[in-house]
């Protein structure tokens, strides 16, 4: 994928807005200078969004006029108008959004290309730019997604399942006596108490889901580079040999690439 790279001095503010968390990254050229992980609040006003971003920049001693642009990947549509207004009012920028119709240089070989989530496109573009194809990306978020890219760089489709946190929360909400526990590997599979028994079932059960879906995709696709990103990517990657690389900031890097392709 040929990408016209940004000037090395360009400061780009990139926002990956997910259902649970929003990751804000500050790029200096191609380098991710810093990033912040914050809770997503869909009800934030435009003023709250603008002041929030303005404060983050102040901590890095960056003024709004120092930014070349603001780029957004969002899967929370109610926030989008307030994001646009907050960025315009407080940072004096018209934010670039990953949305249907933008240039990606990646053919979308799916039934409804316009329905593809912005984060999923960012992941696919970034993984192919870094590792080539075929490749398979697992993104551990509120949902866990699998993105499949061919050797020629076409997006072939993927899979979606409830994320680890959703699974753990559902178990606690739907059972009267079982406590809420963190999704983390216990010291042994055979639990000796309620908490480690729940952790064992959640973690290793979810690991089985991850490995099962991944293996079936690879059976259809053939050999491919498997890359993971998202909050629990490292925890699961350390317990399976299917995941070859963990890229914590993959979505942000894909967002930067898409912005670069479309910036003018």
Number of helices: 7
User: Largest sheet at a glance?
Assistant: 5 strands, mixed
Q: For the largest beta sheet, what order do the strands appear in spatially?
A: 3-2-1-4-5
In quaternary terms, these chains amount to single chain
Beta-strand residue fraction: 15-25%
Helix coverage percent:
25-40%
| Gap between N and C termini | 17 Å
**Mass-distribution shape:** globular
Unreliable spans: 1-6
Order of helices and strands: EEEHEHEHEEEHHEHEH
Can you walk me through this structure?
The two termini are 17 Å apart. Helix 1 packs across helix 2 (80-91). Helices cover 37% and strands 24% of the residues. The strands form 2 sheets. Strands 3-2-1-4-5 form a 5-stranded mixed sheet, with helices on both faces. The longest helix has 28 residues, at 194-221. The chain has 7 helices and 10 strands. With 264 residues, the chain is an alpha/beta fold.
